[in-house]
Amino acid sequence: MSFMQKVRDGLRRLMVGRRGPDELSLALLVAGVVLSMLSSITRIGLFYLVSLVAYGFSIYRMFSRRIEKRYAENVKFLTFWRGWRSSLKQFINRAKNMRKYKYYKCPQCHAWLRLPRKVGEVTVTCGKCHSSFKQKA
Ligand SMILES: [Zn+2]
Q1: Which domain holds residue 137?
Q2: Res. 137 pLDDT band, cuts 50 70 90
Q3: Are residues 103 and 88 in the same domain?
Q4: Ligand 1 is a single-atom ion; what residues have CB below 5 A from it?
C-alpha cells in the first residue's frame, strides 16, 4: 500500500459517521478568509478574532457526529442565503432599470411593481393581490 493510499484510507476512516463540508461550513471558511484579509488591511484585531471563530466553527461542523443537527443548521443557512441573494438580485435589477421604469410597492401586499416612465397617471392592478389603485409614473 502506497503512502497516498494509506492517507486516503485514514481520512475515509476518520470521516465515517461525520457529514464533512457542507454549504454552511464552506461559507464560514470563506467568511474567515475575508475577515482575516480585512484584519490585515485595517489592522483591526476584532476581525482576526471573529475569523478564528468562523474557522473553528466550520471545522467543528465538518467533524461533528451530530449529523441531524448540522443538517438542520445547513437548511436554515440555505433558506436565509437564498432569500438574501434573491433580494440582492432584485435590488440590482431595479437599480439597472431605474431610468426606464418607476418602481413602487403595492399599498396592499407590499409587492414590488413597476411602470414604464412617462405614462402619466394610470390605474394599476397588482399582479399578486389583484387590488387596484392609481399611480403616477
Ligand atoms: Zn398587491
Answers
A1: 97-137
A2: confident
A3: no
A4: 106, 108-109, 111, 126, 128-129
